[in-house]
Amino acid sequence: MIPRLPRWDRVRESFFNGERLRDSFPRLLEAFVLDIKIFAWSTPAILALALVLAIARSSRNPALFPIRIFVIGYIDVMRGVPVILWIYLIGFGVPGVGLERPFNSPLLWGSVALVMTYSAYVAEVFRAGIDSVHESQRAAARSLGLSNSQTMRFVILPQAIRRVVPPLMNDLVSLQKDVALVSLIGPIEILRQAGIDKSKFANFTPYVAAAIIFLSITIPLTRTTDHLLARERRRTSATRVR
Amino acid sequence: MKLEMRQVAKSFGSRTVLSGFDLDVAAGEVVSFIGASGSGKTTLLRCVNLLEPIDDGAIFLDGDEISRIGRDPNPIRRRIGIVFQSFNLFPHMSVRQNITLALMRVLEKSADEATGTAKNLLARFGLADKLDAYPDQLSGGQQQRVAIVRALAMNPELLLLDEITSALDPELVGEVLDVVRELKGSGITMLIATHEMMFAQEISDRVCFLDAGRIAEQGPPSQVFSQPRDERTKQFLRRVQALGKT
After folding, report:
1. Domain A2-236, second-level architecture
2. Each residue's pLDDT expressed in tens, for chain A with a length of 242 residues
């Protein structure tokens, strides 16, 4: 059907051009290393910060009330503004106060913006997981003499985190793509490189190539998680309903 | 361990569950609590364990007031074991980990020592081969026996059993009750909330009938079951017996 559309030939020429693909691919791959780097250093920071936020928000200690209010405010503000806007504001704003190298790097502050926004989303995922562990688990742990923090660490969090792995992966796949937004404040990563190639040759194929490169990371990432989860389920449970 | 409760009151919102509740339990005594659902049996046990803060009154363990506001509950809970109706095993941990967690983290025993304790207790209750099983791989009766072992491993002076057979199939009740029968011989103080009248009659030194947050009648099982004096106790026992016949 598609080849019979009247302008298909021209679309194929500008989006699926084999020669342009072969030419751009190595350059894009090289630029993609930067995406992977940003992803690799942002992810641990996001997970750690999100966990701290979620635990603070789930705490029941009345003395921590001001901290809970602060965390709720932080999450609301971070989630309520588009990621791209935070990247502009933090990435251009913070170095603007006159920081010296290397602390004025847009790469650094772009990553900080990603960490700040994504930790707010991921904190809510963790919190949902913590809330989903039944109160009776807490009762059992506390009745054995475990402290509040021991209960959280050994009983609540391990169950909570297992449950939220799928939505967590969802956010990480999302992050893997949003890393490209950092290019808007300077660094040349894959999306920017594709844009450069597109302009140079007036051809959109580099964008398609970039899409393929993104997929080659995100799909295996998701499948591996599914596999790990299934293995864990087989290990701890007796029977499966078909 | 000697337990005293003086004028204990507990409500949830506008619903009063315990009011002016008095109780004296001697060391080594086995006391059963019977009564309709909602009569306060579970709340009573959870208050003793400090899982529920009481609104008024006081609870003493060996003369020491444990219910005082601001007291750290953790050292007290180490001396009191509780077994729940719904087992509440930790599903992400093997039987061994369920039992050794508090031994290692609360009593600070070595992994070897804790595992040794777990193995001994599991063997004593016929679960030696379940050391590395996960709760999901066990029957309800086995899970509940593991939960009892988990509580016993802490070597509590007082054991609270909260309707421990209510979530079990009838044919699994026996194996769990056998465990409790064996415990009675060991001299541990036990408070048992139960719907198993025959069992309460057999195992208890004393039976308390709870009604509307108070002990309406108490005494040796022979007296409470055969010659109840309180009118509500009579009614309750008649209803239970009628159910047992059908």
Report:
1. Orthogonal Bundle (1.10)
2. 677 788 888 888 888 888 888 888 888 988 899 989 999 999 999 999 999 999 999 888 888 899 999 999 999 999 999 999 999 999 888 887 877 777 778 888 999 999 999 999 999 999 999 999 999 999 999 999 999 999 999 999 999 998 898 889 888 888 988 998 888 887 888 888 888 888 888 889 899 999 999 999 889 888 888 888 888 778 777 666 66
CB distance A56 to A127 below 8 Å: no
Q: Which distant-in-sequence residues (6+ apart) come within 8 Å of A182 by Cβ?
A: A38, A87, A91, A106, A107, A110, A111, A113, A114, A189
Q: CA of A135: which chain B residue's CA is closest?
A: B88
As a whole number of angstroms, the distance between CA B151 and CA B125 comes to 13
The residue length of chain A stands at 242
Give how far Cα A22 sits from Cα of A189, A200, A230, Å.
18, 15, 38
Place of tokens 């379940």: B130
| Chain B residues whose beta carbon lies within 8 Å of the beta carbon of residue A234 | none
Residue ranges covered by each domain of chain A: 2-236
Which of B88, B102, B134 lies nearest to residue A146, judging by beta carbons? B102
For the record, the structure tokens of B236 come out as 């309750």
| Chain-chain contact of A236 with B102 (C-beta, under 8 angstroms) | no
What's the CATH code of the domain at B75? Answer: 3.40.50.300
Spell out which chain A residues touch chain B, with contact meaning CB-CB distance below 8 angstroms. 136-137, 139-147, 150, 154-155, 158-159, 162, 235-238
To 10 degrees, what angle do helices A190-201 and A205-236 make? 150
User: How many domains does one find in chain B?
Assistant: 1
